[in-house]
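Exam review. A common question shows you a sequence with its structure tokens and asks you to describe the fold in words. Practice with the pair below. Do the first one on your own.
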Amino acid sequence: MKIKLSNAGKRFNREWIFRRAELEFISANAYGITGPNGSGKSTLLQSIGGMLQLSEGSIVYSNEKTVAPEDAYQHTSFCAPYLDVIEEMTLVEFLQFHHQFKPFIPRFSVKKIIEAIGLEGAANKQIRYFSSGMKQRTKLAQAIFSDTAIVLLDEPCTNLDNKGIDLYLSLIADYCKERLVIVCSNDPVEYGFCQTIFSILDFKNSADKMVR
């Protein structure tokens, strides 16, 4: 899978969040997006994933042949601390529900996924009773174990302790080598494995803050 942004920009009202972005992302590579808090990293990541429409420029998804932007979600999984899980469901129910929309990577079942993230003892507990770290493991599971070519991770270690961070890094190493991974973070622990690092500041220009 390849994603190519050309002269890409996104604004809200009269403020440009980023502009004139020329970026290319290719499978079997991991990329980091960094920048100060509130600088627009998450907006750029969501634009790359097709969750936000660009204000200018273009984005092209291709996987041997061009993928229509409205179909990009079929090839993408996403994990972010601001995305909610369905807390009325148990962990088993949530993963089964998610599986209806996106298949798991080969040879993985709900049971095997729960074992892989170390939550066997909470499999049948409602997610509302999970700690914040357990909820983050659940979000990582639904992203990493979905059979998608693109994995987008926004501050993926939020609420994780050291054991959870080690789990995150091992999941990336074991299941994301051939995929296109983009990590949005300011913490080198979260993106240290990335081969290429971009700063959102590279696509911001104070002269372009206001639309003329």
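Now try the second one, then compare your answer with the model answer below.
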Amino acid sequence: MSAAVPPARQPRRLLECADATSSPIGSCVSWASRFRVRQYVTGSLWVVPLVGAVLGVVLGSVDVLVDRSVHLPAEFTYSASTASTVLSSIVGGAAALTGFVVTVTVLVVQMATQTFSARYMRLWYRDRVLKALLALLVAALSFSFTLLRHVEHKFVPNLGTSIAGFLLLLGLMLFVIFLDRMLHRLRPVAVAALVSDYLERDFTRLIATLTAPEIFWGRPGETGGTPQLVARCARRGAIQAIDVAGLHSWALSHDRLVVVRHAVGDFVSAQAVLIEVFGDGPADPGDEQRLRRMVVLGVERTIEQDPGFAIRIMVDIADKALSAAINDPTTAVQVINYLGESLRMIGTADVSESRFTGVAAERRGVVIPVRSWEEYLALATTEIRDYGASSIQVIRRLRAMLEELLEELPERRREPVREELRRLAATVGRSFGESVDLDRARIADPQGMGGTSPTG
């Protein structure tokens, strides 16, 4: 791209190619398209097994060529009938085990969604061990079938037959690992820990993205004036991710202020205002489509740029545990353990606090709506406090979490925590006002019941 040509006057195709980051799909594919492809591949259960099937056929054909040129010792050779029987058994065993794995997975997902949260499915079908197991079994099946076609009285793929048996044995071992992993992940505390790990990983990336110069964390209502360009949603959906770096680059190259009107995680209707562009002079109407492609819409929220969705999943698990049908307050206490850690991480970061002071302050850059610290805190505590109001251990563990946050967070974040403590005290007074356990309900306990507390 020539520096002598102003960005606004460059051919649109050239501009899109220059700003698009390289990818295996193509350098001129939009960021939103690449994000959707990554999400689809990550969430799909058939892509990796399909790769395994293709590799099985390719490696089987290669093995036939190798077997024709090598000679193995007698103890590693097979007769034609024995090789046909072994390979046929491996094909049938791999197919049966694949069907069994799928059946077990469906049953586990059904149990998990009933016990935890329907949002947990998004994490389950991304499990790498499950995909690796399916890919290995399908590869063993296609590899064995490819060899079976070449078994003759004059030629037996001895090496390949042994390899096929090893692949099936490896699949059985991986199935045991998968079963162990699956059973351990049926524990609510394991799910909460998994979601918390996802939150920590993606929140660190989010902070790194939003700390670039001229990226402002504000609320849409803080801007003013008349926008020179408005990009509207082409279809409805939940905002899954925003190409902050792409918007930032576009804003600087065009000397504009780009204001995103909805936060990641919001559901927007078709034709709703998505992005507004402010600046001096008229904007190119053709840029609306390009700006729109920097926002990804989908059926459901994702954790990648939406820390609130991870907190939502953990709160859902606690809410279901506190329901009358399950009545398991200890599970809610275990979830609060990881909620407290997640809130501490968010509360000590600077990304959830507005820095934007209005259009008059800056004429170019990007304004990204983010949740405030108060909103994260309310999301994590309100429903658990409400549904667990009659559970003394939930109330005590909530108090311990809030008091820990009060000690560890910077002063500017402490007032919302104090407000939550006041709300908790009011809830305790309403639920235990005439109970003999009122004094115990007012004590913080890191274990809910049975732990130690400085005030206990």
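Model answer, second protein: Confidence is low (pLDDT under 50) at residues 1-28. The first strand starts at residue 215 and ends at 218. Full marks require stating both points clearly.
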